[in-house]
């Protein structure tokens, strides 16, 4: 007999105690109990954490962590949902947008299908307009709504910086916090599984999923986002000092996003610098892109 208990993150304390009792009784039985839960919702203080720790002491306990879908599995899911043979371009675009998260993937596929039916757009045009489905926004939004206002504000700044962000830069942009307070805010984001530490890089963090970063970015107004890009660019100039060459592309990006506020001079400078570095490294297409950006500015 297999008994499946879904969404254990929502179980109340008496139910968890019953599960612990059951776990001690099944060793010599022909019963398997399968419990599933979303680890992003289970912090160290969550009641389920204690239950799992006590169950882990038994010989019959086994934990399996489910990762995202691989590219081939995303292709199969698109085929199953749409009933059509997907192009490699579509598979790669959907996988890159969702990182293999099954729920996100299925919702994006359905959104693309609905858009094509409603507008008659071809696949290529649809791919260029990939966005976050409302259902996914609601799921991510529920997780973000549990954060304190301070944590959401700091993570929003991190989201505008990029998928990865440096603690030093975060500190310069949030000077109202002491170092200890900022570390506490970052710890809150870590415990909520919204961000994670980058292995091998001290004080560097990244968002657990690109859609979390994108959702945070889209929660703020365009005006605020433009000004934040400008502040980030100026803070990076301070951090990099007299040797910004290696980071010219990063600086060009932020000043390109804030050119309406900061003016074209810095964008021209860093786009030219980034183009010259790309040219020296034989990255000719990148060089053309940077030079065109500077010329347009």
Walk me through this protein's architecture.
The protein is mostly helical. It is 62% helix and 6% strand. It contains 16 helices and five strands. The chain has helices at residues 13-25, 47-55, 71-82, 88-98, 102-119, 123-128, 134-144, 149-161, 167-173, 179-191, 210-218, 222-240, 248-257, 259-262, 265-280, 284-296; strands at residues 2-5, 32-35, 164-166, 195-197, 204-207. The strands form two sheets. The chain has a three-stranded antiparallel sheet. Helix 12 (222-240) runs antiparallel to helix 13. It is globular. The model has no long low-confidence stretch (mean pLDDT 87).
Topology:
Elements: E1 2-5, H1 13-25, E2 32-35, H2 47-55, H3 71-82, H4 88-98, H5 102-119, H6 123-128, H7 134-144, H8 149-161, E3 164-166, H9 167-173, H10 179-191, E4 195-197, E5 204-207, H11 210-218, H12 222-240, H13 248-257, H14 259-262, H15 265-280, H16 284-296
Helix pairs in contact: 1-2, 3-4, 3-5, 4-5, 7-11, 8-10, 8-11, 12-13, 13-15, 15-16
């Amino acid at each position: 007999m297999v008994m499946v208990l879904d969404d254990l993150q929502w179980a109340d304390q008496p139910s968890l105690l019953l599960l612990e009792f059951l776990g001690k009784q099944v060793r010599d039985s022909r019963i398997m109990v399968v419990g599933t839960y979303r680890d992003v919702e289970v912090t160290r203080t969550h009641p389920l954490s204690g239950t799992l720790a006590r169950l882990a002491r038994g010989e019959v306990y086994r934990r399996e962590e489910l990762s995202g879908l691989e590219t081939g599995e995303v292709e199969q899911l698109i085929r199953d949902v749409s009933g059509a043979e997907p192009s490699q371009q579509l598979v790669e675009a959907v996988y890159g947008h969702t990182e293999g998260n099954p729920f996100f993937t299925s919702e994006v596929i359905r959104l693309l299908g609905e858009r094509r039916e409603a507008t008659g757009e071809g696949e290529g045009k649809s791919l260029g307009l990939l966005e976050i489905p409302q259902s996914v926004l609601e799921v991510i939004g529920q997780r973000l709504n549990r954060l304190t206002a301070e944590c959401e504000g700091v993570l929003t700044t991190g989201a505008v910086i990029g998928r990865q962000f440096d603690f030093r830069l975060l500190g310069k942009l949030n000077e109202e916090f002491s170092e200890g307070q900022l570390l506490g805010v970052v710890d809150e984001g870590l415990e909520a599984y919204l961000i994670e530490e980058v292995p091998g890089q001290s004080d560097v963090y990244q968002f657990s999923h690109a859609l979390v970063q994108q959702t945070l970015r889209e929660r703020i107004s365009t005006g605020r986002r433009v000004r934040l890009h400008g502040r980030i660019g100026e803070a990076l100039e301070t951090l990099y000092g007299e040797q910004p060459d290696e980071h010219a592309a990063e600086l060009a990006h932020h000043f390109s996003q804030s050119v309406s506020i900061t003016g074209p001079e810095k964008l021209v400078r860093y786009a030219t610098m980034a183009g010259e570095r790309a040219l020296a490294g034989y990255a000719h297409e990148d060089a053309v892109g940077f030079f065109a950006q500077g010329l347009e500015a």
